[in-house]
Amino acid sequence: MALDATSRTRVWAHLMRISNFGSIDITKADLKAAVDATDDWIESAAGASAPSTGFNSSLPQPFRGAASAQQKTMLFCFVALRRAGLLSVAEDVI
Question: Can you tell me the distance from the alpha carbon of 31 to that of 90, in angstroms, rounded to the nearest whole number?
Answer without folding.
Answer: 18
